[in-house]
Amino acid sequence: MAIPEIIITASRELRKNMTKAEKLLWGYLRDNQLWEKILRQKPIHISLEDNSFKRYIIADFYIPSRKIIIEIDGNIHNHKEVVELDKVKEDLLKQKWYQILRFSNDEINQDTQQVLKNISSLLEKGRCPKDRWDDWWNTELQNFLKRQSDKQKLIVIYGPTGAGKTAMSIDIAKQLDTEIISTDSRQIYRGMDIGTGKISEEEMQGVEHHMIDVIDPDEKYSVGAFKKQAEAIIDELYKKWKTPMLVGGTGLYIDSIIFDMNIWNIPSNPVLREKFENLSDEDLYRWFQDIDPEYASEVHPNNRPYIERGIEVMMTSWKSKRDLREEKVLKYDILFLTPEWPQDNETTYREWLYERINTRVKQMFDEGLEQEVKNLIVEWYIEEDEGMRAIGYQEFFPYLRAEISKEECMQQVQQHSRNYAKRQLNWFSKYKKYRG
């Protein structure tokens, strides 16, 4: 399962109270092919909202970030509500990222098919997402492909969890007839599909994906191992005259490919690795803090692989991994892309992102994440295994021991996912200087 290209949000009560005609309209708008045919892209979020006098069906797109609002008029209870609604609409239209299509309940009930045709017609006329996509395709991407460089070309699509990278990457990969290399450190594990937001075969739409389902959850896997495998795939893609695409949210995986850094030349230390096995997470992190306090402050105490590698680098080279990480030179001619947000206000963006993460996690629970974790446990994977330490899996063990409720478990997954997204945003901030 990939980052959802469409998230359906409508309360059970609201769905129950919908008229037959409204249900037809709702079903029509949930159809992927509608949006793909008309706008050449799929929405990353569709929601149905009700404030007792109006209902809104909202489609949210990633390029550019804008919304199309389909407004269904109901019974307006008082003048104050009308004034408030008009003020909201006025603010939205000023931003030029919103298009409002208006239909009454009577119109829908009398001739639903005609309303659907009208929606298609109005969307076709206002194809701002498509127009913006064409402008962007003819400028930024084409300029990148045409510009002269003595380095080989590479596209990097990065961003925090839940931002819409998957949908964006599929569109571009299909346009370029190329293949995608996942840079997600959790999607390398087999059997961990729902909790990692792993893309399905159907969602791939025929685009070849690499570095997914590489190892089992109880196997250890280093950044160096990823780098070696991914670079071999990149070389093969160049032989096919294709421009490789890196897509994912694990910054260290991306950095290992795009930068020439001394850190990757420091080999693993078998003596230290053996010693690590006899230390608890707490003891290991204390050791890390003692020898490299600055870099330790950047790493989560439960991120054992990063802690082990940090100690290993310091003890082998007597340099902090943090210092070595800053000695960077781009190896490729790179186009850095990330799903955009129209607002300059960072707080607003984070609120939007955190809301999407919360919705996404809830959807994972609805799709059977608990059963996925239980299936892994039945296969003898345990809490201490590398894969089972991942967000979305580690939180289930206290729940399965009856130490917390299922609701608390979900809240923990949401909180940890939001914290992870915050760290990702901080990491990816350095890419801005390469985007021109």
**Total strands:** 10
Structural class by SSE content: alpha/beta
Count of DSSP-assigned helices: 20
| Beta-strand percent range | 5-15%
What about the largest sheet?
5 strands, mixed
Mean pLDDT comes to: 75
End-to-end separation: 33 Å
**CATH homologous superfamily heading of the largest domain:** P-loop containing nucleotide triphosphate hydrolases
- The secondary-structure element order is EHHHEEEHEHHHEHEHEHEHHHHHHEHHHH
Supply the CATH architecture of the largest domain.
Answer: 3-Layer(aba) Sandwich
What's the level 1 CATH class of the largest domain?
A: Alpha Beta
General description of the model:
By secondary structure, the chain is α/β, with parallel strands linked by helices. It has three domains: 8-127, no CATH class; 148-260 and 328-436, Rossmann fold, CATH 3.40.50.300; 264-327, Histone, subunit A, CATH 1.10.20.140. Helix content is 50%, strand content 12%. The strands form two sheets. The chain has a five-stranded mixed beta sheet with strand order 1-2-3-4-5, with helices on both faces. Strand 3 (54-62) and strand 4 form a beta hairpin. Helix 10 packs across helix 11 (251-258), helix 13 packs parallel to helix 15 and helix 17 packs across helix 20 (406-428). The longest helix has 23 residues, at 406-428. The two termini are 33 Å apart. 31% of the residues are buried. Residues 1-12, 60-67, 73-85, 92-100 and 122-133 have low confidence and may be disordered.
